[in-house]
Amino acid sequence: MKKIRVLIVEDEPIIAADLEDRLIEMGYEVAGQCASGEESLLVFEQGNLDLVLMDIQLEGEWDGIQTAQKMLTKQPLPIIYLTSNTDDATFNRAKNTLPAAFLTKPFRGKDLQHAIELAISRAAPEKKHAESSKENTDAHLFNDRLFIKVKDRMVRIFLSEILWLEADDYYCKLITHEKEFLITQTLKQMGESLSGIPEFMRVHRSFIVNLSHVEEIGDLFVFIHKKQIPLNKSSKDELTARLQRI
Known about the structure:
Layout: E1 5-9, H1 13-26, E2 29-34, H2 37-45, E3 51-55, H3 64-74, E4 79-83, H4 88-95, E5 101-104, H5 109-133, E6 139-142, E7 145-150, E8 153-158, E9 162-168, E10 171-176, E11 180-183, H6 187-193, E12 200-204, E13 207-210, E14 216-217, E15 221-224, E16 227-230, H7 236-245
Parallel strand pairs: 1-2, 1-3, 3-4, 4-5
Antiparallel strand pairs: 6-7, 7-8, 9-10, 9-13, 10-11, 12-13, 14-15, 15-16
């Protein structure tokens, strides 16, 4: 049976070595130890990983949360944060990346083992479903409308009715004024389907918005129908330019 491969991203050599010993004792394979986000991204891009243990304070230009964001734009993978920072601001930043767990140092070996087991057990069926849903989707795009399978029928939704789409693990949620639909496609797949429609823009890793419904724009958020939606700083100029064109 193939061993679970774990990447350790930790800038304290003693802690990294201890983590590697614990993982090997638990029966996992350690894919490597990295002290910086930049180094870990290179290992991540080589693929063949199952999980990342990510310290938040790292060497180099990126912290662990920024590193996780860069990793997740390339491939969804369970990430467990290991940190001595327990302030709300750090936790809320980490939470936006949808981690598998958030462990505060020092933690017990059992806590780490349970977090890893839960992360792997949740990721396995989601990965299997994501692979199968590439062929079996319940959303079909036709010009100005979508048809979504709901139980035993196909429901029409005009694109103009869509407020936003939101990532939900290996599914995504489609939100209108009246209803919320769960679609068995990833947000990335839906974004590819909608890429030729100028009203739709991915403003964050977890959100695609219908620009026609944007009510307010802040430095870090847009607002649609009283919903605060995170906005990547790098996307703000593009969002403003596209609003002028639609």
